[in-house]
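Hey,
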Amino acid sequence: MAKKDPAKEEQKTQERIKKRQAQLEKHLVVCPHCGEKVLDHMTKCPKCGGVLVPRGYTPMDPKTERTLKIVGWVIGIAAVIVFIVLTFVLNQ
């Protein structure tokens, strides 16, 4: 079994860290209230509590949200009814 070179392992770790930092830095924006860097998906600055508008995010239309909730409930209730019916049919 070959020994791992600690220097090579450290170099790989540093490369992974740099790559991850570069990925995260793409998603940083400056808070207009305090000037701190925050992630672009946040709706509230964790530093000053200022309201932020997330980049690339639009909230769901309330009518669409309500429709999705109703559809989810109908599908869930139908699944429970099917389960109950199958339980009675298979137990006979």
